[in-house]
């Protein structure tokens, strides 16, 4: 394996194109697709999202049929679109968090970051190219999964008749209600498309955290801790300033766009919320770039 | 051509590189020598713009690394061998690097052929031996056919065949008027590879000269004399102004002296004139390793208490001689 014939000529430039940002984009795409962990995490995202949407919707409808109605059972009646998009994708989003952090922290843990920065010594284009390629990947996969989730859920709930029993003026009454969802209902298309958009920005949010923390386990723990625990818990803050803080937290604001019906106490509109989430993400990406320029690699 | 001007790098209160200035000229292999922790890798990282210096600057062909538009077409670098994603194949690692530089895809296969890894290039690097990883690193360094190469401990993990291969590759590349800057803590390796040496210890420049000058300048030559009448000979040598140090007696053989200050012919003449029988008369040139240890004695960062360092050179002196 060492019968080697080094180049016989003096160092002459290889016929090469001028390469700018396009080359960096191409390189980042090669990086993402050539590592199994990326591909597997995406597969897990698709399977978990679609599988759990199907399972939860089916189980909840069954519970309704048997007269057992918990909170989940009532929300499938009052806001079926939110139920469908919230269950599977609610857990599937964790895979996107992992992936976003991983695409950057894996370079640090393996040392590949030094190869990347030797090739692009201005450094910041690495994060820009990585972010763009990753966002393009997540938006495509995310939208496909969001639409598939919706169609699967819709197929399960549509035409399902629920009987609501109650007492009116001392008389027992029962009302029959047929669940119907379709993309043409107000706010539904926005919620489905918005789910894909939310996942995309969430992925970039995780990527920015990964760029700041630079350790895989730390970054994943931080992102998932924020999304699942810290931000939702902030809803328990007292008084109206607490409600404002909660409303402007990244994923709390960002998730508004995934809901077809605004709630009564909502402080931000769907698109305002999405804008707030984008602003947070841009801020964190800028911080990640600032530190990348400054720190020793 | 690599130029470092007054480079200083501090990590916390530890000074890794201390006002270091040097030039690396094209057309020869320049060895970068120093004990472990001397600051060799840090210096290379400063030159390559990976770490930011506290003071000073470094240029490659007159420009800072960060200002090169397609840096890999000018500079190839091998830093630590395993600086690759373990789940990625060697071919894809090289491919993404090529894409950042606008290099054609066939260049990846060319450098894979150069390092002899074409057959296994599709496998993930996780399964590679250290030697194979080194070869991928060298392939990456050669990707843009650069005129300047920085190699940090390139023979690490290579088998003897691989060491010979890289030694010849470096000499060949230098003969093409490229700038070759190669670090090592293995003195014998540098003795047979490098034309010029830059020696540092504790981040400071100790020597910047040709390999030959380095050996001659920094070490006394000695002569090993073995004789049944070593004591008598020692007195005569002392009378002639030489210095004879008795050596550890080896089983069953005549006592030996290590003589400095007189050369072998003169010692032979003294012995003949006084009718003293000689069993051995061997001129010993100090090895690069001895010269190095002598020079860096005060600047070893992680020195132990054992006298091993003092004994080792004697054994390695012969191996240097035979491999030359």
What are the defining features of this structure?
heterodimer, A: 297 residues, mainly alpha, two-stranded antiparallel sheet, 11 helices, elongated, disordered N terminus, B: 324 residues, alpha/beta, Rossmann fold, Alpha-Beta Plaits, 6-stranded mixed sheet, 4-stranded antiparallel sheet, 37% helix, 25% strand, disordered C terminus
Q: Can you describe what's shown?
A:
- The complex is a heterodimer of chains A (297) and B (324).
- Chain A has 297 residues and is mainly α.
- Chain A has one domain (21-294).
- Chain A contains 11 helices and 2 strands; from the N terminus they run ααααααββααααα.
- Chain A has helices at residues 21-33, 36-65, 71-78, 80-110, 112-119, 124-157, 188-213, 216-233, 239-247, 250-254, 270-294; strands at residues 161-168, 171-178.
- A two-stranded antiparallel ribbon of chain A has the order 1-2.
- In chain A, strand 1 (161-168) and strand 2 (171-178) form a beta hairpin.
- In chain A, 39% of the residues are buried.
- The model of chain A is unreliable at 1-9 (pLDDT under 50).
- By secondary structure, chain B is an alpha/beta fold.
- Chain B folds into 2 domains: 2-217, 3-Layer(aba) Sandwich (Rossmann fold); 222-284, Alpha-Beta Plaits (2-Layer Sandwich).
- Chain B is 37% helix and 25% strand.
- Chain B has 12 helices and 13 strands.
- Chain B has helices spanning 40-47, 71-74, 90-100, 106-115, 130-142, 160-175, 187-193, 211-217, 230-239, 264-273, 288-296, 308-323, and strands at 2-11, 14-24, 28-33, 55-60, 75-78, 148-152, 179-184, 196-201, 204-210, 222-226, 243-246, 256-260, 280-284.
- In chain B, the strands form 3 sheets. Chain B has a 6-stranded mixed beta sheet, with helices on both faces. A 4-stranded antiparallel beta sheet of chain B has the order 11-12-10-13, with helices on one face.
- In chain B, helix 6 links the parallel strand 6 and strand 7 (179-184).
- In chain B, helix 3 (90-100) packs across helix 4 (106-115) and helix 4 crosses helix 5.
- The longest helix of chain B is centred in the middle third of the chain and has 16 residues, at 160-175.
- Chain B starts with a strand and ends with a helix.
- The model of chain B is unreliable at 306-324 (pLDDT under 50).
- At the A-B interface, helix 1, helix 4 and helix 5 of A face helix 2, helix 3, helix 4 and helix 6 of B.
């Amino acid at each position: 394996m060492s019968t080697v014939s080094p180049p016989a000529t003096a160092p002459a430039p290889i016929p090469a194109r001028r390469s700018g940002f396009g080359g960096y984009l191409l390189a980042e795409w090669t990086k993402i697709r050539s590592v199994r962990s990326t591909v597997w995490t995406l597969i897990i995202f698709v399977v978990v999202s679609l599988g759990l949407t199907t399972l939860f919707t089916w189980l909840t409808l069954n519970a309704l049929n048997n007269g057992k109605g918990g909170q989940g059972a009532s929300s499938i009646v009052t806001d079926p679109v939110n139920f469908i998009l919230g269950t599977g994708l609610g857990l599937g989003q964790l895979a996107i968090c992992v992936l976003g952090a991983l695409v950057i922290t894996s370079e640090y843990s393996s040392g590949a970051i030094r190869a990347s920065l030797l090739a692009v010594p201005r450094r910041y284009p690495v994060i820009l190219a990585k972010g763009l390629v990753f966002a393009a990947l997540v938006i495509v996969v995310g939208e496909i999964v969001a639409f598939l989730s919706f169609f699967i859920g819709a197929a399960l709930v549509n035409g399902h008749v629920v009987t609501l029993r109650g007492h009116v003026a001392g008389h027992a009454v029962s009302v029959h209600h047929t669940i119907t969802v379709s993309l043409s209902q107000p706010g539904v298309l926005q919620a489905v498309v918005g789910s894909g958009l939310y996942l995309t920005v969430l992925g970039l949010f995780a990527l920015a955290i990964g760029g700041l923390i630079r350790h895989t386990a730390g970054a994943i723990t931080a992102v998932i801790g924020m999304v699942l625990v810290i931000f939702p818990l902030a809803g328990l803050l007292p008084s109206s300033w607490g409600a404002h803080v909660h409303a402007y937290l990244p994923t709390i604001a960002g998730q508004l766009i995934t809901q077809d019906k605004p709630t009564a106490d909502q402080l931000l509109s769907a698109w305002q919320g999405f804008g707030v989430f984008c602003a947070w993400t841009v801020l964190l990406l800028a911080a990640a770039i600032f530190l990348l320029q400054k720190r020793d690699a | 051509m690599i130029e470092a001007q007054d480079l200083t790098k501090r990590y916390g209160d530890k000074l890794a590189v201390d006002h270091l200035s040097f030039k690396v000229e094209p057309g020869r292999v320049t060895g970068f020598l120093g004990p472990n922790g001397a600051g060799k890798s840090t210096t290379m990282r400063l030159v390559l713009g990976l770490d930011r210096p506290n003071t000073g600057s470094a240029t490659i062909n007159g420009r800072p690394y960060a200002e090169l538009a397609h840096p890999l077409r000018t500079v190839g670098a091998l830093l630590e061998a395993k600086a690759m994603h373990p789940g990625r194949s060697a071919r894809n690692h090289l491919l993404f690097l090529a894409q950042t530089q606008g290099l054609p895809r066939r260049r990846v296969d060319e450098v894979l052929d150069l390092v002899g890894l074409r057959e296994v290039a599709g496998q993930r690097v996780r399964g590679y031996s250290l030697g194979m990883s080194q070869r991928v690193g060298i392939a990456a360094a050669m990707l843009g056919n650069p005129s300047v190469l920085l190699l940090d401990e390139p023979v690490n993990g290579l088998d003897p065949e691989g060491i010979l291969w890289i030694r010849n590759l470096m000499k060949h590349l230098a003969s093409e008027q490229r700038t070759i800057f190669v670090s090592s803590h293995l003195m014998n390796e540098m003795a047979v590879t490098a034309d010029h040496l830059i020696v540092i210890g504790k981040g400071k420049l100790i020597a910047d000269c040709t390999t030959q000058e380095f050996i001659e300048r920094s070490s006394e030559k000695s002569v090993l004399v073995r004789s049944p009448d070593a004591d008598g000979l020692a007195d005569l040598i002392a009378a002639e102004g030489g210095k004879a140090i008795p050596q550890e007696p080896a089983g069953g053989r005549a006592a030996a002296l290590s003589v400095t200050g007189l050369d072998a012919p003169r010692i032979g003449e003294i012995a003949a004139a006084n009718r003293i029988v000689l069993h051995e008369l061997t001129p010993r040139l100090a090895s690069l390793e001895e010269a190095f240890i002598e020079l860096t004695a005060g600047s070893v960062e992680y020195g132990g208490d054992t006298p091993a360092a003092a004994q080792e050179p004697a054994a390695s002196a012969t191996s240097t001689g035979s491999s030359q």
